[in-house]
Task: inverse folding
């Protein structure tokens, strides 16, 4: 078929599209956890959450300490301040409550980011505990400090006003099962203290917030496949993704504007990852090509994991009477992903 218009290429990420991507991935993470709880059961949901947060911790904790200038602080203080500052950059409200060089508190203040909105009512406590075991309980191991652990004193999932606890450096090595302990009823003796935030330019902060949500999707998809197996992961993940794409279509598209063609907004969302995207108009249809996915390509995931991501865009397309037909899936040696974007009001194919 002859091309009616030349392919349009761009590699840029505007602020509005970055915010839209952050919003859809944030929503997908929450929805996927709820879907796991309801369809796979709380134990397997907790295992996925544990593995997701451990993957995040291994990849991001030490580089983040250095980037935020916290790597020279006492370990308990450094860990607490890391959670405050790194989460603040991602749009999450966490406060620091100092006590001593060996005991330092944090409080994740409602509304909880990961258990967004009314979703908090559907999250079992064991899933919240898995998050702490995945990340907080491993900081001492990463810092080569076998005396450092985390004590959780309250959880939002138990109806308490936030997830709160403290890092503590004991005078003896901790057993693995003691790296996270639960002691409801303990309270900090001091008030929260504000920490200075990095003085980064506004666009960098927008991209950091996008990257915060994106990193969770990069982490959860491999662990979803590992725990459920590719087939079940693809089935559960795709249903959740399509539901979230439909449910949040108006909110996400509202951030970038509902005018113009769906295909252009779809391409804009893909470009907001910082990736190179082509939009080629032909006499019969429109094709969107993604040369490289910074989100997925280096993870070497099974095709079902791609389906569990692609469902987001399928759900959004459905809300505008469009259908995405995957015509090329990136495999070893291939160069691009490609979708045909069909207007179902005019195409029966």
Result:
């Amino acid at each position: 078929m002859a091309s009616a218009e030349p392919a349009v290429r761009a590699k840029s990420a505007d602020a509005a599209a970055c915010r839209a991507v952050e919003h859809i991935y944030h929503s997908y993470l929450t929805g996927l956890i709820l879907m796991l709880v309801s369809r796979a059961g709380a134990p397997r949901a907790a295992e996925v959450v544990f593995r997701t947060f451990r993957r995040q911790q291994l990849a991001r904790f030490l580089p983040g300490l250095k980037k935020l200038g916290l790597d020279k602080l006492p370990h308990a203080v450094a860990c607490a301040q890391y959670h405050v500052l790194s989460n603040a950059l991602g749009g999450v409200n966490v406060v620091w409550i100092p006590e001593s060089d060996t005991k330092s508190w944090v409080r994740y203040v409602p509304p909880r980011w990961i258990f967004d909105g009314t979703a908090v009512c559907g999250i079992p406590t064991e899933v919240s505990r898995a998050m702490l075991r995945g990340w907080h309980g491993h900081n001492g191991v990463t810092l080569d400090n076998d005396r450092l652990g985390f004590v959780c004193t309250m959880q939002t999932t138990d109806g308490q006003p936030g997830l709160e606890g403290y890092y503590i450096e004991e005078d003896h090595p901790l057993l693995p099962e003691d790296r996270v302990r639960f002691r409801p009823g303990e309270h900090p003796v001091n008030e929260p203290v504000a920490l200075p935030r990095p003085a980064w330019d506004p666009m960098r902060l927008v991209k950091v917030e996008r990257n915060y949500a994106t990193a969770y999707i990069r982490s959860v998809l491999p662990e979803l496949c590992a725990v459920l197996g590719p087939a079940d992961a693809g089935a559960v993940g795709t249903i959740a993704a399509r539901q979230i794409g439909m449910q949040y279509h108006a909110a996400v598209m509202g951030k970038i504007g509902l005018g113009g063609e769906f295909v252009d907004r779809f391409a804009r969302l893909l470009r907001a990852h910082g990736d190179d995207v082509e939009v080629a108009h032909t006499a019969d249809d429109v094709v969107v090509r993604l040369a490289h996915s910074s989100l997925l390509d280096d993870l070497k995931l099974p095709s079902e994991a791609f389906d569990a991501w692609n469902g987001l865009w399928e759900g959004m397309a459905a809300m505008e009477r469009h259908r995405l037909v995957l015509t090329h899936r990136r495999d070893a040696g291939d160069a691009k992903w490609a979708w045909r974007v069909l207007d179902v009001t005019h195409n029966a194919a």
